[in-house]
Amino acid sequence: MDQEALLVGRPISYRSIPTISCILASQALEKLACFGLVPNMILFLTVEYGMGTAEAANVLFLWSAATNFFPLVGAFIADSYTGRFPLIGFGSSLSLLGMILLWLTTIIRPECDKSTHVCQPTTVLQLFLLYSFFVLTAIGAGGVRSSCLAFAADQLQSNHTSSRAATSALETLFNWYYFSVMLACFLSQSLLVFVQTTFGWQIGFGVSVAAMALSVALFFAASPYYVRIKWKSSNQWQLCSVQQVEELKSLISVLPIWSTGIILSLVTGCQVSFIVLQAKAMDRRTFIQGFQIPAGSYGIFLVISFVLFLVLYDLVIVPLVSWALREPFRLGVMVRMGAGYVISVVCISTLAAVEHDRQKTSRDEGDTMLSAMWLLPYMILGGISEALNTIAQNEFFYSELPKSMSSVATTLSSLGMSAASLISSWIITIVDVATCGSWITENIDEGHLDYYYWLFVGLSVLNVVYFVWCAKSYGKCNI
Question: What parts of the sequence cross the membrane (predicted)?
């Protein structure tokens, strides 16, 4: 596949920093706008649209599956047909349209009795606006997230840059990219959730619309100065080359290891909606008089745990152990992945135990509520588990797959989250039917959400055994 850099405007040395800044700021705002909608969406669907808990959770799982799957489709389209700039522009504009439609649902929505939580039947227009939001933002995310990082890296291209300087610049770019993603997660689960909780859906969703509009504006503002790559296709799919066969074999060989990450995503990424319902039924007061942590903001502790563990591991644990051993110390990817899976078993076990105690306190002590701070062990362990496993898996895929498949390697984690969301939807449906709706109920005090969590404890234990088998079968990994 040939590449032709279309350089327009000033020399790269003058424009790379501002254009990269615009791209990173644009993608951070896109994630801020989207991630800020996720935590409280279960409340919006159940309270404002009158959906059942299981039905609303299924809708959100399918939305998450689509949002994480479409970047793989977008990567193929960008590399084979459109290029990255048009796809990002199309995706971000589509996401903005979807968020505007969601904002309209706060005006055109079913009338609900707040005391009984009984809502009038939804109209065709109301459902059209709601589901159009889910579809448009999922497709839009495929356009933005498939190409944003690669497009930022395109801006570093120059025929006059040394290999060492280019590598250093690329490393710096990746660091700032992931920093901006974490910052967006932090702000979305704190600031945006607080605005939604305090000022209502109309203003809360309006902030997401404003953030997405600013994202689109920033991206297109620098369009005259971007370095753009034109991808020329030579009908490569007409004949399968030996290289393509080897690439397919390499991909198939890593799929068992990839599949082990699905259960971890089920434990740490797919329980957001239920944790919000748990937190809402718990005592969320803090040491600050009159201030309660919004139910949708507890996920921020997982993000903090993720970041702090990475800093502690890189700056304290590794140097300290290396000094003690008098030689460089580094845990291999298989060890880190395995440690992440073992920790995930303890992680989801704490959540099941807390839910059991919460229900017992609610039944035995009436108005007394268990402190929501008991959710922190799950958040802390979940962050550590994700930090160990996610980065190790990305390093494994990038190292074991051919360099020609680097784009695929960087999207496999997203695909795993998509699979986890889809499987979560199936599990919810099966559990709801098998238990006649007795585990997952409208009022979580009347259900058995703890049994649901213990089911995932069992799956996590089986996943540890499965991972050990996969790691031994793979064998050839030396990293």
Answer: 32-51, 57-78, 85-108, 128-153, 174-195, 201-227, 248-277, 297-321, 333-354, 374-392, 412-431, 451-469
